[in-house]
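Q: My labmate handed me this sequence with no annotations at all. I'd like to see what the chain might look like in three dimensions before we decide whether it's worth expressing. Could you predict it?
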Amino acid sequence: MKRRLLISFAAAAALYTPFLLKDSGNSFSGDCDYLIILGYKLKDNNPDGQLVERINAAADYLKNHKKAFAVAVGGIAHGNTVSEAQVIKENLAALGVEENRILTEEKSKTPFENLKFVCEIIGEHSHKNIEDLTVCLLTSDCHVHRSLMFAKSAGLKNVHSIAVRTHSKRFYSYLREYPLAVDAFFRCAVNKIKKG
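A: Here is what I predict for the chain of 196 residues:
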């Protein structure tokens, strides 16, 4: 029984790996209307590891694309008193990005909620149909494929991505994506069924 499970997991991983690696190399450099910066766990209310990498990459992009708005994403995780979104906003501002260009989404508790609520925020801010806007998702390279799954399920059609190279805990970060991708697939499938 255990052997069958291991063989099944290995086969599934082999099939999934090309998709994971393909999206992990995405590096959109064109103009977008909104840059969505996905949060990551804080350490004592401060950005750490992958979140620092995402913030720095987002600041670089926003400085070179002055018309783009940023949407910082992430709620308050256990053990912290500030949201990931607020920390992203404060750090982007410290790096020279104008605060009036930075929106925040702080209610979400899951990756799917991240993108669902972001769609609502962008719609209210732009007064446009989300399908008429160019949106870019910025996250760690290991996380891009799963994030795009959630984004498309939430209704983002014209979505690009910027994959930020993961330096901290790289092997572990990629390894954990395999079971999380299975979870994401079923969540997106359920959402599609609910939409009819």
